[in-house]
Amino acid sequence: xxxxxxxxxxxxxxxxxxxxxxxxxxxxxxxxxxxxxxxxxxxxxxxxxxxxxxxxxxxxxxxxxxxxxxxxxxxxxxxxxxxxxxxxxxxxxxxxxxxxxxxxxxxxxxxxxxxxxxxxxxxxxxxxxxxxxxxxxxxxxxxxxxxxxxxxxxxxxxxxxxxxxxxxxxxxxxxxxxxxxxxxxxxxxxxxxxxxxxxxxxxxxxxxxxxxxxxxxxxxxxxxxxxxxxxxxxxxxxxxxxxxxxxxxxxxxxxxxxxxxxxxxxxxxxxxxxxxxxxxxxxxxxxxxxxxxxxxxxxxxxxxxxxxxxxxxxxxxxxxxxxxxxxxxxxxxxxxxxxxxxxxxxxxxxxxxxxxxxxxxxxxxxxxxxxxxxxxxxxxxxxxxxxxxxxxxxxxxxxxxxxxxxxxxxxxxxxxxxxxxxxx
Length: 424
Ligand SMILES: Nc1ncnc2c1ncn2[C@@H]1O[C@H](COP(=O)(O)OP(=O)(O)OP(=O)(O)O)[C@@H](O)[C@H]1O
Ligand SMILES: [Mg+2]
Description:
This protein has 14 helices and 12 strands. It is an alpha+beta fold. The protein folds into 4 domains: 85 residues, no CATH class; 98 residues, PAS domain (Beta-Lactamase), CATH 3.30.450.20; 73 residues, Helix Hairpins (Orthogonal Bundle), CATH 1.10.287.130; 149 residues, Heat Shock Protein 90 (2-Layer Sandwich). A hairpin with a 6-residue loop joins strand 9 and strand 10. The site of adenosine-5'-triphosphate (ATP) has 22 residues, from helix 13 and helix 14.
């Protein structure tokens, strides 16, 4: 209460002080007009022979009008109007409250004021520093040149700061009213640029992956119409290759759609229940023809009868399908694969672990962290058939289920891919 009262009193005192200061400044600014008006009143009273006190009353009236009439251009025009000044507000407070780096310079581009964001983003920004010496890129130099011209109305530039870490800024420069100062605001565009690059890379990779089978199909069509026209054996084998390539393109499109659908899907319902034992059994059943084709014997090592998790059955099916497909496709030289289900940890961090192990060629250590990247394939003979999207879909689905994938592999011995999912 007392603190509030004290604040009230000091506000009142500050208000009075402001009024006095304003009256003084008005009188000073209007001194010539006041002088002229007083002379005119005195002259009129002398000429008309009127009483001097009437002239004095007239002068008093003119002075009062000067002090109390609201001034047209003054009120609310300055950055620190009466209300802001009363609150002890300054330009430094204003730019300090802005999260983007802000630099105020004079017309010679020498630093007048900076905010904390600017000082931490750009070293060496003491007041008086010439910005043209601090920001050397040609685009910034052009903006600064422009900014020091008298009629400057504003401009923009791109600026890349390399130290301490690389950041890309869009710089907006504007004149600060009629003060002659200029304000530069630096908007960080690094994240936007990273996303733009990712999108461009993705489109480039996807079109490259489509172009390869398409080029191969086009080549075979040409051969079939030309030299192989009357060669039934060659025709059959070429048609088989063409069919494989179209299958590959269809798979690629399915995988791409699957990825984009996953991105659009809502979050997993925490109350849904899926039994991992049942899903894994279904996957083994569905892939029996592929395992037979690859001559891989799949065995089950289940430590549990049930493994309930919160999630989507179809998505989890896709996860184990890709892992077992990979074990058959890439680990076929080992002639067997083991699928195991176990539990680990205790509530609340109890989880189920489903591991697909193969005894094939294994994966070199440097590739392991990159396997879940889109389109990443280890450059071995067998991997040419895949799209390189399977494991990135696996990772995506597991992240949605609050789970993750761990990979252990040794060259020449085989690989083990383990899915970790929190128990429901
Ligand atoms: N069990 C494994 N043994 C050896 N290499 C593997 C194994 N699993 C995956 N890889 C390597 O990882 C790469 C990426 O696998 P991923 O499942 O993401 O894509 P893919 O199998 O090529 O394509 P898709 O799954 O879409 O058919 C494969 O191309 C292969 O080089
Ligand atoms: Mg795969």
